[in-house]
Amino acid sequence: MGRVVRGEEPVTWIAQPAGTAPSPEEPPSERSLHSVLEFIADAVAQQTPFRRVVVSSYAEPLTSAVVSTLVLAYAARGLAPEDEAVLRCFIEDGRTVTAARFPPDRRIGCSYYIPAGTQIEGVSPQVRSRRRFIVPEGWHQDDLLLTPIESEGRILGAISVDDPRDGARPTPHALRVLGELARMAGAALDQTAEEQHLSEQPSLFRLLAEHCMAGFLVTDGERLTYVNGRVADLFGYSREELLALQPWWQLIHPDERAAVLRQEADIQRAGMRARGVRKDSSTVWLLVRSYPLEYQHRQAHLMDLFDISEQVRTEGLLREKAMHDPLTGLLNRHYFDETIYTELKRSQRYKRSFTLLLTDLRGFKRVNDHLGHARGDEVLHAIARLVRRTIRESDWVVRYGGDEFLIVLPETAAPVDAVVQRLRTAVELWNREHLPEIPVGLDMGWATWNPDQPSTIRELMEAADAQMYADKRRQGMRA
Predict the structure, then answer these.
(1) pLDDT tens per residue, range 195-252
(2) Strand (E) or helix (H) holding 145
(3) Torsions phi, psi of 136, nearest 5?
(4) d(Cα 43, Cα 35) in Å, to the nearest integer?
(5) 3-state SS assignment for residue 176
(6) Which run of H or of E encompasses 61?
(7) Are residues 343 and 305 located together in one domain of the fold?
(8) Which of 99, 299, 321, 375 has the largest count of CB atoms under 10 Å?
(9) pLDDT tens, 381-416?
(10) Are residues 58 and 189 in the same domain?
């Protein structure tokens, strides 16, 4: 039989003899094994491109004399429940793994890469990737990459990875990281064989913490009792300065401080994002997770900190790109569709009016026809910047269509004649100076949401559109 120890996402499974009921508490040796496997699985998932990870420990090490063994326990990341069931059945049935799963001719670095279609004994159970990979020279869903966990010539277990985020075959960097983590796991599993708890082994704890790419610190009340070198690098302090710092949470930005302290108490394994405050007052974005720990014979918390500043910056750029029109730099229609209902709810709550002002660039077709589309793009960009400068900072300007701009004027009630006149005058002056050969101008229509006579967004848009086309006819007759 077996027992599954679950967090919110990770899974650790520890084998038990058939017919044995699970005990309420794990023996110290199993708790220690559990901790090591989870630690390594987390590190592999964070530090390599692979999204599916299985770290296993063997009941008896594979050696030149021992060529098959049982799987004692494993920790997994990224597996579906049905995939975990396959692994558990394999272990519960007493099936063995053999040294044949590490064929010498497939060795690259410290790992063994077994491409799809290769007939190798001893690699079961293989849980096929559910993701399809389409690059011919990339990763295949039946590929297998194994890194043995070794110590003094004995194979104590293995790290198996799959589903690379980039769909590529293993890179030298990924192989080096896997090799380093396997060496760490080998040293850790060697010490767990002595049946001592991980948190009570300072030498083992420091071995793991000092060689990990994450920042590790141990908190005890308001003070820090341990920090690794990565924490010192992240915050720009020396270790001595950090250990003297009280309270330690001044390292966290005030806006996220309370949430981080709540997480420390709740042990949310999924973690949270927070800004760290460096010694020079600059900030660094961190993924923060907290674990209970007995350290130096006291109850404490271990926190791991991953620098995600580059990830946050990239996400910000992607968000910016997703909500802005690339030609004019204005907000795009998608942003308007997603956000206008928030503005409507705010106006309903506080009973304040807002106005939708729809504009069309008159004469723009002639610019494209006579001067070309490149010049037309320049004109559109210039008018967009002019409109943005002419209205309030709190107003939105959206490129709604080809040459249509939609302006949202929060807390603005009718009439908006002054805004309309400023826009007309600004465009006319620009036209005389920069494009005198082709007259351009703005046709405009607007509609105001009023708490006393509420309308839907669709009704406001239809009213503004009708008024804009009436204005277009009037301006056409004047021309």
Answers:
(1) 444 444 455 455 555 556 678 888 988 999 888 888 999 999 998 999 999 999 999 9
(2) strand 144-151
(3) -55, -40
(4) 12
(5) helix
(6) strand 50-62
(7) no
(8) 99
(9) 999 999 999 999 989 999 998 999 999 999 886 678
(10) yes
The sign one gets for the Cα dihedral 193, 196, 199, 205 is negative
Q: What token pair was written down for 209?
A: 């913490």
**Same domain for 298 and 180:** no
**pLDDT in the model for residue 83:** 85
**441-474 core/surface letters (b: 16 or more CB in 10 A; e: else):** bbbbbbbbbbeeeeeebeebbebbbebbeebbee
Integer CA distances (angstroms), 147 to 43, 181, 188, 390, 464, in order:
14, 9, 16, 62, 65
Q: How many domains does the chain have?
A: 3
- Is the pLDDT at 427 greater than 50? The verdict is yes
46 secondary structure, DSSP code? H
> In the prediction, which pLDDT does 385 show?
95
Same domain, 258 and 331: no
Helix extents (H) in 211-363: 229-235, 239-244, 254-266, 309-323, 333-350
Q: 218 with 248: CB under 8 angstroms? A: no
Confidence at residue 443, expressed as pLDDT on a 0 to 100 scale: 95
Specify the pLDDT at position 207. 53
Query: Are 375 and 367 a contacting pair, CB within 8 Å?
Result: yes
Q: Which residues pair with 354 in a beta bridge?
A: 410, 449
**Are 233 and 185 within one domain?**
no
Q: What CATH number is given to the structural domain containing 395?
A: 3.30.70.270
Amino acid at 320: E
Residue 268's domain is classified under what CATH number?
3.30.450.20
Same domain, 272 and 392: no
Nearest to residue 445, comparing CAs of 419, 417, 466? 466
**CATH number of the domain bearing residue 38:** 3.30.450.40
Choosing from 309, 344, 372, the residue where a domain stops is: 309
DSSP assigned state of 188:
H
pLDDT per position as a tens digit, 348-368: 888 889 999 999 999 999 999
Domain residue limits at 400: 324-478
- Least confident residue range of 118-132, 308-322, 365-379: 118-132
Q: Compute the CA torsion angle 399, 404, 405, 409 (nearest 10 deg).
A: -130
| Residue (of 386, 221, 394, 376) closest to 298 by Cα position | 221
Q: Are residues 389 and 293 in the same domain?
A: no
Segment among 170-174, 200-204, 392-396, 455-459 with least mean pLDDT: 200-204
Residue 456 lies in a domain: yes
| 140 three-state secondary structure | coil
Q: Return d(Cα 109, Cα 147) in angstroms, integer.
A: 9
Same domain for 301 and 333?
no
